[in-house]
Amino acid sequence: MDTMIGIDIGFGFTKATDGKNFHVFKSIYGEAVDFQFKESLLNTNNQQDEHLQIDVDDASYFVGELAERQSSNRQFTLDQTQFIASSTKILALAALTHFMSDNKQSFKLVVGLPIGHYREYKTELADMLRQSHHIVTTNSKGVRKDMVIGITDVKVIPQPIGSVMDRLLNDAGKGADQRFANEKIGVIDIGFRTSDYTISDKARYSERGSLTTQNGISKAFEVIANKLKDNCGINVELYRLFDAIETGSIKIRGKGYDLRKITQIAFQQLAANIASDANRLWNDDWDIDAIMITGGGGSVLAPHLQPLLEGVIVPIEQDLDYRLHNVRGYVKYGRNIWSSKPTPKPESTPEPETTSEE
Asked: Is position 324 within any domain?
């Protein structure tokens, strides 16, 4: 039986789940290098970083934190066309290795795209993933493992629909929250590069009330990065600001910089722009019952955004990281649409072999 997986391949983070276990890593990859020295310099408790290394199409990559730490040539982009063409396949397959219980396994996937890019890229994305993929993983000890990932079916949906499905459906994919089934709910999904706006009108998607803008959380990151450049002359890559913004400070060349004030200003400016877009887009939808804020950016912008929105705010459930509501909803949606359908037979593929390197 195929394993049902939801994957949210964001510009900031890639998120995947089977409904129980979650796998999250930065959407960065880079060329894999041979380590001259593999041992940790000290035996500490701070050795939790995942060694995520994957060979795809005869090229070997470090992915996530490993790429950020070890790869000289790192790939991180905010361009949608380049992201689909060069990054999506690598990041999706790297995520699926976390759910492999054998060397050969079949999956059904539900994947999201920003509303503004959904029509253009949904077929390309589905065709890219819906096939058998022969990959090789390498663990931190250098042990290589051949794997075959058979993706038998792919459903691509607009990203914020995942958060709606997460509230509307239970873990079995059946109706749960009648409010989302019977009311008109506006959803603001704030990602790293984009913000998506959509309306679920009695569980039906509203094309008129849906939009993608470039006002993702990266806009605030750019303001902070530019301020740092003015102060110290260093171009700090946006993906290296996550921890610094969360803690409120960063060290550059050994000197500490307090980011709290500029972060507050940047978040307030971004929230004002997002609220203005939502209020303008939904001006004619005065019958919206409530508005839900979701997405990784939603978790930090919600306090700034809520007072500026015209409508009643649905509090997001606090049982889960904001970034994961969409992807958990994908799995629930997949169970809903595929529960009664027969499983397609995967393509015939050779049995993988397991080898090791010293």
From this structure: no
In a domain, 42, yes or no: no
Q: Is residue 166 part of a domain?
A: no
User: What is the tens place of the pLDDT at every residue in 31-76?
Assistant: 998 764 454 444 445 445 578 999 999 899 999 999 988 888 887 7
Pairing of strands 290-294, 195-201: unpaired
Structural contact between residues 19 and 171, judged by C-beta atoms closer than 8 angstroms: yes
Amino acid found at 291? I
Q: What is the CATH number of the domain that holds 299?
A: 3.30.420.40
Is 332 contained in some domain? Answer: no
Location of structure tokens 């722009």? 273
Phi, psi of 180 (to 5 degrees): -75, -20
Tell how far CA 338 is from the center of its chain.
23
Closest CA to 314 of 346, 344, 292: 292
Contact partners, residue 316, CB within 8 Å, separation at least 6: 292, 293, 294, 298, 302, 322, 325
Residue 258 is part of which domain span? Answer: 183-316
The DSSP code for 311 is S
Same domain, 145 and 200: no
Domain total for the chain?
2
| pTM, entire model | 0.84
pLDDT digits (tens, 9 = 90+) for 266-286: 999 999 999 999 999 999 999
